[in-house]
Known about the structure:
Helices cover 68% and strands 6% of the residues. It has helices at 6-11, 20-35, 42-60, 81-94, 99-114, 119-137, 147-156, 161-181, 190-212, and strands at 64-69, 72-77. A hairpin with a 2-residue loop joins strand 1 (64-69) and strand 2 (72-77).
Amino acid sequence: MFEKTRIFKLLSKFPDLTSDTLMYRWLMTMEIYANIDCYDDAEHARKNFAVELAEAVELSGVNAILCDTPDGYRFYPANAELLDIKLVIDVLNWLSNYPKAKEKYDDALRLFLKGDRTRHVLDDCRLSLELFVKQYLSNASSLENQISELGKFLKDKNVSTELRNMFNSLLKGYTSFNNNNVKHDDKINESEIEFVIYMTGAFMRLLITSANG
């Protein structure tokens, strides 16, 4: 029974995880424990702890998910399971070949998990996508100046005209939204930031899967 595990007993001592700051600190502490190497059979022990920790977080209702990444166990925000898997976890794994883009996407996700609802999350998302596209197309153009090149690429990959037009329109709106909101530190609606995070992942996912198709 999960209620008899050590991780459940530990969680029971933190009844109030509603504060973003408290929750983030707790998650980061647990993340350190999940990656610690102080056992005779460290890998097996870490895996067992991570499984219990992931289950505990899920049952607690905290909007976070523990992922097994090449950099160790790491927490990321979790809001919609299907989108989290397809547009966050999958994309982070695929970005291993795009380290600069991965770093900024990771930064955006961790800021959001921490409770940051300012332009900094948007800035990291945009920079992640821009760095990705620069490496992807092997040029140094800004994101705004990549739209036509991306359209040509998608056409070469036999992506439908309608979807290419949708992609271009969304990317234009994406860059405009970011440009207008990264100029100040005002709090931004959480649902808008969440949308931008998923849209960033959606852009990169389409390009990566199209390249592999």
